[in-house]
Amino acid sequence: MINVQGISKRYGSIKALNDLDFSINERSCFGLVGPNGAGKSTFMKILVGVIDRFDGDIQVFNQSVKKDQLAVKRCIGYVPQDICLEETLTANDNLTYFGRLYGLSGEHLRNRIRVVLEQIGLSERAHDKISKFSGGMKRRLNIGCAILHEPSVIVLDEPTVGIDPQSRHSIFSLISELKELGSTIIYSSHYMEEVEQICDSVGFIDKGKLVEHGTMKQVLDKHRNAAIFVAKDGMVTEELTAYGDVMQTDAGFFINCADPLSTMGIMIEHFRENGITPERLELSQTRLEDIFFQLTGLRLRDNG
Ligand SMILES: Nc1ncnc2c1ncn2[C@@H]1O[C@H](COP(=O)(O)OP(=O)(O)OP(=O)(O)O)[C@@H](O)[C@H]1O
């Protein structure tokens, strides 16, 4: 269990984190989501020991990030947001370098490199200089460097920003595999659908505050309600307010109401009588992204 206890952090006058309190279960995948500047990286840097001046504490399997820094660092693998690799070296040499930093050597290090290259799908490219690698391949290698020492906690800060779909898929498979093998994963992202897909629990962070957290099911069940979605060229909000609370988006209108199914029947009747043919009319379930919007008034994509 990872217990976050009253974490606050200031950078001068900026309050980057404001009294965070939550816990993360062992062997789960926790998604930390929030817009740019919400405080995700600051939280992760405190957890992995990169930032050591802050208020509060985090217990990682009963060890304090403040008092047992070295022990905590040993059980964590950190994949920073910015790729941290030596461009002039091969994939194999980069892994050797990071493995040695983690205290691995000899046959054990060589074995670990072999396994990790397999896990990140780069065995065939082990002896190529990484200056020839795509952004996605570098991201995968960046993750590889962080898991060489078989950490029980893996912290990934926005690992899928700006990469190709193949590398994204490969990173998802790797995360599933690491979780199956017993790791606890902490994953920050702007991409809600990713978090919904791979995480068991989630925390929403906005302006340094945790605005919601829980298992994925708890958060979805607590906030989920069916809405009606309708799209038609030229339609305006006023035409729909009789049916419920209307929210306009680029794609169309969401209507929240007590009984969406019956309301949709009434709308269909009205459209038929008046010769209106919408391009889309459907029942829509609230997604994680909508819940974040309800709680903060922010769309993550607009900020990303
Ligand atoms: N070294 C620093 N010095 C001063 N302010 C900082 C520093 N690092 C972060 N901040 C500020 O702290 C706040 C939280 O930043 P942080 O990088 O943790 O957010 P984030 O959610 O990770 O955002 P992003 O997705 O852009 O990385 C922001 O207002 C940021 O400008």
UniProtKB/TrEMBL annotation:
SMART domains: AAA (SM00382). It comes from Gracilibacillus dipsosauri. Residues 2-232 form the ABC transporter domain. The keyword Transcription does not apply. This is ABC transporter ATP-binding protein. PROSITE patterns: ABC_TRANSPORTER_1, ABC_TRANSPORTER_2. One of its GO terms (molecular function) is ATP binding. Keywords: ATP-binding, Nucleotide-binding. InterPro entries: AAA+_ATPase (IPR003593), ABC_transporter-like_ATP-bd (IPR003439), ABC_transporter-like_CS (IPR017871), P-loop_NTPase (IPR027417). Gene3D superfamilies: P-loop containing nucleotide triphosphate hydrolases.
